[in-house]
Design goal:
- The protein is α/β, with parallel strands linked by helices.
- A hairpin with a 7-residue loop joins strand 4 and strand 5.
- Helix 2 crosses helix 5.
- The longest helix is centred in the C-terminal third of the chain and has 55 residues.
- The protein is elongated and about 125 Å long.
């Protein structure tokens, strides 16, 4: 509403409103009301011919509000034919006016632009997308004939004057309105997703979203373009050759560089860090930190053996700490055991020797206890043997002598 309060009171906006929705949402009713009853046809214009804006465009003289219904939705060339001109209309200080059989003249640009469309592919996302405010359009009343008939009846000249008065008050109360921060609406998010190419979406989904860098498994060698192609074929279900994917890289993601590598001189991708990919996609507005998140759920951490829980008991926390400490101690013990003392400094030698001495002392204590236990067991066995022999001797004596006689 702040955008409308500035533009319809004659204050040039350097962003454009972009309204995309299906048919039957009432966009045309609102636009007709704004031009016919709020500012008048002398100051507002609605057209479906984008080509009429670039040549013989004298009808733009004195206009402060321009509504463009539908844009070319074909290839890049068709879009580029009007995108540069729209950029001048949106941000330019002057606009060229051409009357038939007369030279082009430059006049002050007071035009604020609003685009209506039912086509989701009429805007090419990139660096220029920041100039478009993409509003969410409600579809709740689609098909409700009575509602739109009633709405058309009350959107008359009297309502238009009242609405213009309201816009003037709104402008006076918010003259420092900053239009630059582009709202991150659902419409904008959907438009991004629909405009990103399958190849760019593949890199986003399979690498950026999953925190992957484009790099070989040993993190040293370049990444095989053949492996990269196999991943893309699996993702897209398209039958492509190595030259096809190479052309896609050069045409859609020039950030990726390739070179011949190995004895067979096969094409490989020069390693690209995950952060570099994110920065590039963020710059091109293919990545939005508000909506797009890196999925770390698949990453396996060294000491994480169970799923994280929000709440832990004190005993569970203590047990986890003990488990982690035990693993750290084990790693430290293995590392120290593998160190060659001769290759270390005197200080390191001292620390390591002390550790090994402690370890040796512990082993000696265990060995001593084991020995003492063995001696004790031997004593018990000896005493048992003596007692047994004495008993056997006593029995023999009983046989020889009759003690009762």
């Amino acid at each position: 509403m702040n955008w409308l309060s500035h533009s319809l009171t004659g204050h040039k906006m350097k962003t454009a409103l972009f309204l995309k929705s299906g048919e039957g949402t009432g966009k045309s009713i609102i636009i007709e009301f704004l031009i016919k009853h709020v500012i008048g046809k002398a100051l507002g214009l609605s057209t479906t011919r984008s080509d009429s804006l670039m040549k013989f465009n004298y009808h733009l003289v004195n206009k402060i509000f321009l509504v463009l219904e539908e844009l070319p939705s074909g290839g890049k060339n068709q879009w580029h034919s009007v995108s540069d001109y729209l950029k001048d209309i949106i941000t330019g200080g002057t606009v060229g006016i051409e009357k038939k059989y007369e030279d082009v003249i430059q006049v002050e640009n007071m035009i604020s632009l609003l685009i209506l469309t039912n086509n989701e592919n009429c805007i090419r996302f990139g660096k220029d997308a920041r100039r478009y405010h993409m509003c969410d359009i409600s579809h709740d009343m689609v098909g409700n004939t009575k509602y739109f008939n009633d709405l058309s009846e009350i959107l008359n000249e009297k309502t238009g004057k009242a609405f213009f008065s309201y816009l003037t008050e709104l402008y006076n109360g918010n003259k420092k309105f900053n239009e630059s921060p582009v709202p991150q609406t659902n419409a904008r998010k959907a438009m991004k997703e629909n405009n990103i190419t399958p190849f760019l979406k593949f890199v986003k989904d399979e690498y950026i979203t999953y925190g992957r860098s484009i790099i070989s498994s040993d993190n040293k060698k370049p990444y095989s373009l053949n492996l990269f192609l196999e991943e893309y074929i699996t993702y897209s279900n398209q039958k492509l050759g190595i030259q096809n994917v190479h052309n896609l890289i050069r045409g859609e993601l020039p950030l990726i560089k390739t070179k011949q590598y190995g004895t067979n001189k096969t094409l490989h991708i020069i390693p690209i860090e995950h952060k570099t990919l994110v920065d590039y996609y963020r710059k091109k507005e293919f990545w939005d930190d508000k909506y797009d998140k890196v999925d770390k759920s698949h990453l396996v951490f060294e000491f994480q053996e169970e799923e994280e829980k929000e709440d832990y008991s004190l005993e569970e926390l203590q047990q986890q700490m003990e488990n982690i400490q035990a693993k750290i101690n084990k790693k430290l013990e293995n590392k120290i055991s593998s160190i060659n003392i001769k290759d270390k400094t005197d200080d390191n030698k001292k620390v390591i020797k002390e550790y090994l001495n402690i370890e040796s002392t512990e082993k000696k204590k265990k060995k001593k206890k084991k020995k003492e236990k063995k001696v004790q067991e031997d004593k018990i066995i000896t005493q048992y043997d003596i007692s047994k022999k004495c008993n056997e001797g006593s029995e023999k004596m009983d046989l020889i002598f009759d003690w009762n006689e």
